[in-house]
Design a protein that fits this description.
Layout (H helix, E strand, L loop, with lengths): L2 H8 L6 H14 L5 E4 L6 H10 L8 E5 L8 H6 L16 H4 L4 E5 L6 H13 L1 E3 L6 E3 L3 E6 L3 H6 L5 H7 L2 E4 L10 H15 L9 H9 L5 H15 L7 H5 L31 H33 L9 H9 L29 H14 L7 H15 L4 H8 L3 H10 L4
Parallel strand pairs: 1-6, 1-7, 2-3, 3-6
Antiparallel strand pairs: 4-5
Length: about 425
C-alpha cells in the first residue's frame, strides 16, 4: 500500500514532511510482528495509528485489544492483563480471561505504558519476550501469541533514569519507535484537518458553516494546540454547533482556544484588530479596548507566576550560598518573606534594582560564581527581557544546577513536573 492510499483509508490528513515520514515508517513495519512504540503528546492520534498498524498487518482478521494502562487501578491491573482464577481474591467468583489471552493471534495495544506499576512491568517483560504468563491465583503456565503496540506521552528513558520504569522493559519496547509530531510542528496540515472536521460535523448536525476570516485562519495556524488533533476536533465541533451559520472571525474563534499561542507570553492572548477597525479619530474602539484589557489581565497573571518562579529559584540558588551577592531589597525578602510573596521587579534594568552586585570577600566556589555570573549577564541587558526569555533562563539554570534531573528542577522552580515537561517542549529544550 502506498502512502496516499494509506492516508485516504485511515483519514490521515496532511502533506507535511513530518507526517509523511511517520506514515512511511508505519507502512514499513506494519506487516511484521515487531514491537512498535508510539511516542507523542496527548491527542496526536496514537490510538488511530495503532489501529492502522493492526489493520494492514497479517493479523488484521484477528482481535485487536486496546488497554489503557493508566486508567486501570494498580490493584487489579495484573488481573486485567493476565486474567485470574476463581477464588484468587475477594470478588473473584469465576475464572476470567485477561487481555493477553483475548488478544491471542492478534494485536494488543498498551496505551500509556509509562503508567504501568513496577510489579506488573516484570510480568510484562516476560510475556513480551517469551509469550508466557500466569493467571492470578494459578500456577499453570500459559502462552499467547500477540503483536504488541505500545504508546506513551512520556519520556520513557527519563522514567528509567528516575527508576520508575524498568530499563530492560524499555529496551524490549523500544524496538521500533515512531514519534508522532504534535500539531504545532506541522502547521500546514491544520487548515485541511480543520476543514475535514467542519465538513463532518456540518453533515452530522445538519448545520451550515459560513467559513472564517483570514485573521481567524492565521490564529488557527499560530495557536499552539496543546491538545493537538483532539483539541482541533473539539473546536471544530463547537464552532459548527454553537456558532451555527455565523462567519467566524478572531473574536468568535478566540472563545474556544484555551491554550497557549506560538507568539506572545500569555495563554489565550487575543490578536488585536488592525488599523481599519479603529475609530475615525485614531483611538481604539470598544472592541479593541476590551481585547487590550483582556490581554493586560492575562499578562498580569503571567508576571505573577514568573515572580513566584524567580523568587523560588533565587531562594534555592543563593539562600545557603552567598545572599550578600544579591541586592539588599531581594536579600530582605528572601530572609523575611514567604517565597510566593516576593515582590521582584522583573522589568528593572538598572544594577541597583536587579543586577547582581560585586561579591563580598568570601570563599565562593567556581560553581556558585558561574551561576551568579549567568544571572547577572542575563539581566544586565539594556532591553527588558521578555517573560518567556526569563522563564526559559530559569528553567535552563535549574536543570543545569540539578544535572538534568527534572523532578528536582521542577521542585526548585515551584512548578509541577508535568508543567516543566510542557515548558521544555514549548522552548524546545533538551
Amino acid at each position: 500500500m502506498d502512502r496516499e492510499a494509506f492516508q485516504e483509508r485511515f483519514g490521515l490528513i496532511g502533506e507535511s514532511v513530518a507526517l509523511k515520514q511517520v506514515i512511511d515508517k508505519i507502512i514499513q513495519v506494519a506487516d511484521t510482528d515487531i514491537t512498535v512504540l508510539l511516542q507523542g503528546e496527548s491527542g496526536v492520534g496514537k490510538d488511530i495509528t495503532a489501529k492502522a498498524i493492526h489493520a494492514v498487518s497479517h493479523r488484521k482478521h484477528e482481535n485487536m485489544v486496546i488497554v489503557n494502562c493508566g486508567a486501570i487501578p494498580e490493584g487489579i491491573i495484573e488481573s486485567e492483563l493476565f486474567g485470574h482464577e476463581k477464588g484468587a481474591f475477594t470478588g473473584a467468583h469465576e475464572a476470567r480471561e485477561g487481555y493477553f489471552e483475548k488478544a491471542n493471534g492478534g494485536t494488543i495495544f498498551l496505551d500509556e505504558i509509562g503508567d504501568t506499576p513496577a510489579n506488573v512491568q516484570v510480568k510484562l517483560l516476560r510475556v513480551l519476550e517469551s509469550g508466557e504468563y500466569f493467571r492470578v491465583g494459578s500456577s499453570k503456565l500459559r502462552t499467547t501469541d500477540v503483536r504488541v503496540v505500545a504508546a506513551t506521552n512520556k519520556d520513557l528513558w527519563q522514567l528509567v533514569q528516575d527508576e520508575t520504569f524498568r530499563e530492560d522493559l524499555y529496551y524490549r519496547l523500544d524496538t521500533v519507535k515512531v514519534k508522532l509530531p504534535p500539531l504545532r510542528e506541522r502547521p500546514d496540515d491544520i487548515i485541511p484537518i480543520f476543514r475535514k472536521f467542519v465538513t463532518e460535523f456540518s453533515s452530522k448536525y445538519d448545520s451550515v458553516f459560513k467559513g472564517f476570516s483570514d485573521d481567524a485562519k492565521e490564529l488557527l495556524i499560530s495557536y499552539r494546540w496543546p491538545g493537538n488533533v483532539r483539541e482541533l476536533r473539539n473546536v471544530a465541533e463547537q464552532l459548527v454547533v454553537l456558532e451555527k451559520s455565523q462567519f467566524i472571525d478572531t473574536e468568535k474563534l478566540q472563545k474556544y482556544l484555551k491554550g497557549r499561542q506560538h507568539t506572545g507570553s500569555a495563554d489565550n492572548l487575543p490578536i488585536l484588530a488592525d488599523k481599519q477597525q479603529h475609530t475615525s479619530n485614531g483611538s481604539a474602539g470598544d472592541g479593541d479596548q476590551q481585547l487590550i484589557y483582556r490581554a493586560l489581565v492575562e499578562l498580569r497573571n503571567d508576571i505573577g507566576d514568573l515572580k513566584k518562579m524567580l523568587g523560588t529559584f533565587l531562594y534555592s540558588t543563593f539562600s545557603q550560598k552567598n545572599l550578600k551577592a544579591l541586592p539588599q531589597n531581594i536579600q530582605d525578602e528572601v530572609q523575611h518573606s514567604d517565597i510566593s510573596e516576593f515582590d521582584i521587579d522583573v522589568g528593572a534594568t538598572s544594577e541597583e534594582n536587579i543586577g547582581v552586585q560585586p561579591f563580598a570577600e568570601a570563599d565562593i566556589s567556581e560553581e556558585e560564581n558561574s551561576e551568579e555570573e549567568a544571572f547577572s549577564q542575563f539581566f544586565s541587558a539594556e532591553d527588558i527581557p521578555s517573560i518567556e526569555k526569563t522563564e526559559q533562563f530559569l528553567i535552563e539554570q535549574a536543570l543545569q544546577k540539578y544535572d538534568g534531573n527534572r523532578r528536582k528542577a521542577s521542585e526548585a522552580l515551584g512548578i509541577s513536573e508535568r508543567t516543566l515537561y510542557r515548558k521544555l517542549d514549548q522552548y524546545d529544550l533538551q
